[in-house]
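Section 3.1: Structural characterization of target chains.
Under the original work plan, the team committed to producing a structural model for every single-chain target entering the pipeline before any wet-lab resources were allocated. The record below documents one such target. The sequence was received from the expression subgroup and is listed exactly as submitted; it comprises 621 residues.
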Amino acid sequence: MVVCGDDGLAHRLAAELRGVYEEQVTLVVPPAERSVRPPVVGRARAVSAALLDRVVSAAVSRAAGNGTAAAPATGEPGNGQRTLEAVEPTEAVLAEAGVERADALALVYEDDETNIRAALTARRLNPDLRLVLRLYNRRLGLHIEELLDQAAALAVGGGPAAGSDASTTVLSDADTAAPALAASAVAGTTKVVQTDRLLLRAVERAPGEPASGRPTLALLSANAADPAFADGSESSGEQGPLLLPDARAVREAAGRRGSVELEQVTYARRPAPQTGRGLGAMVPIGILFSRRLRLSLAGLVGCVLALAVALWVVTGIHPLGALYLTLLDLFAINDPAIGASTARQVLQLLSGLMGLLLLPVLLAAVLEALGTFRGAGSLRRPPRGMGGHVVLLGLGKIGTRVLVRLRELNIPVVCVEAGPEARGLAVARRLRVPVVLGDVTQEGVLEAAKIHRAHALLSVTSSDTTNLEAALYARTLRPDLRVVLRLYDDDFATAVYRTLRAAHPQALTRSRSVSHLSAPSFAGAMMGRQILGAIPVERRVLLFAALGVGECARLTGRTVGEAFRAGMWRVLALDTGEGGDGLVWDLPDTYVLRDEDRVVLAATRRGLAELLGRRGRGSGL
């Protein structure tokens, strides 16, 4: 695997490929003295410092002539990574990185043009290469995918060669981080797998907790205090996590081991009031008029009815006639009650007074209705009484993607944005999401977003200090509020998480960098398009993949129950390609898998390699 990049995502991606997929990685990064931001993942700082002398000497050598632009490759002993330093991913640099022999190449530079130029070069060097590009522009990304796939097909004679796994995948760090950020705000976890519009999370159940009926994906490490292990009756290998256990292992572990299950991330609170696209023909009264105005109108109507009843009692006329005369007096179009009884004259005066009070109320109703219709195409304010929502801070590149993801899950959102020209405001207007314009660090802004009744705070602005300040201020208003922070620096994110968790142990806190959340999706794309994601289970990893049954001889013609192999793979769902999320999760064990079926399955690394007929590190798994 070859990874080229100039920020923390490249280092995080390389670490993901080594630690999760156990792949050999060549990392191409700019020279340390030319990096805009120092790497912050794992031991990257120490490695860069150790290589500084070599980089300087190599730069001096290159300055003496027109040699290669790449510094000598260095490696970290025992960790499966080779580091190559180069200013740009030129053809010479890619060749030195071994692109011609590599299974996959990830280009994750912040500059889209650099990634596209390097991708075109890499496709020419190796037509069978799996390419993963980091681009923010979605439309351009689709065209680039098609172009590079066509180039791969032409290079092998008009069609994919036998056994060729060439593909091009264009991803955005904003798109790939959005599902995990949304899941953190809703469910408090970043261990998620995304399939189409469905978001799944891994749920750990304590020993003895009632089963939910879902397949058990893993059994957690056994309790060291368990008598079954204290007397040495079970081998040490069985004390660790057990992936994809069979029914017998689940029964034997009942009450002694925790388990891991997969469930859909849903939102159980009342639906958001902003799901409509506009104000239709039948507009709810609650949207047109405020609660205070509705109470004022109700009070005036009650007073008019009381005056009509009093007039009926005093004069003895028909009740409808009494109501008619009261309305005439109310609008000052009745004759003066000269010569009538004193009670009648008093009632007429009271009706006139009610008419004077009615004028400002009617004017307020007209102004509120006009304001509602005028604001139908502009930014909405948080509705009165709103609660159980997610407060989203920042509508930039990341915030816009997170907003779309939250609304796809039908989660009510209130956005806070400082700049009136932010790119996400148009999306918020289209989705009819309430927005509060103002600096979140100023007093009163979070209160306007109804933070005291919110379900979670999701702070994803581009400033780490702003995100941290907003989180601390929100915690002063709601100590038990769930808080999710986007922080650039991994080390800073870890420190913030530990501090907030210690200061507010009763509240859930998550602080993550975008590179931390994006790396698994980029790594999965490098392993092949069929990989949906990976979920760590203690020291082991469970992979989720979407495969055609015809691609796997071990699945064709077998029932779901027969296809299951303990410790290797399990079929979870059938992709029907029909409405909704298109997946059928409650497959009976008697369902027979056909060649044209496409399934979602969970597998270990070894199990997936066996299913796909791959062997060895060089084969991609």
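Residues 128 and 163 are 9 Å apart (CA to CA).
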